[in-house]
Amino acid sequence: MSVPCSPTTGIAIYDRKGTPISLARYVELHSDEEYRTVASDAVGDRRVITAWLGIDHGPLGESDRPLIFGTVALEPNGQLWQGRELLAATEPEALEHHQTVRQGLVHQKHQADRRPRAEP
Q: What ranges does the record list as Basic and acidic residues composition bias (predicted)?
């Protein structure tokens, strides 16, 4: 399968619907925070963010679908929670990842809240 690439950059770039777009259109869309942000939630002091990336982040030749969305959970210090990003090809799939990560954080917070506190 031939992947459409930007003649300027040589990389494949897509809008949120998965339609190939030009570099100029990517720059325009990427500058719009509302367009980039698919979902964002705070869970305690952590944050779950799902965003449109636009550029295919999939391993070259390993997927017939461009992975153009990413979901991360961030620690208060900005580090990735569990050290990973979940990639998705479609917005509905990305939202599923978002809910899964959010539920994981909620569960972890609930477990931590149930632990007895050490007395000073």
A: 110-120
Relative to beta strand 69-74, strand 86-88 is antiparallel
| Pairing relationship of beta strands 37-43 and 46-52 according to DSSP bridges | antiparallel
Question: Which DSSP letter does residue 32 get?
Answer: -
Break the chain into its structural domains and give their ranges.
Answer: 23-114
CA dihedral sign of residues 85, 91, 92, 93: negative
pTM value > 0.85: no
Round to whole Å and give the CA distance between 74 and 114. Answer: 22
CA-wise closest residue to 83 among 92, 91, 74: 74
**Which positions ≥6 away from 63 have C-beta within 8 Å?**
89
pLDDT tens-place string over residues 79-120: 888 778 999 999 999 999 999 999 999 988 877 777 666 666
N- to C-terminal Cα distance for the chain? 64
Q: Where are the beta strands (DSSP E) in 1-120?
A: 37-43, 46-52, 69-74, 86-88
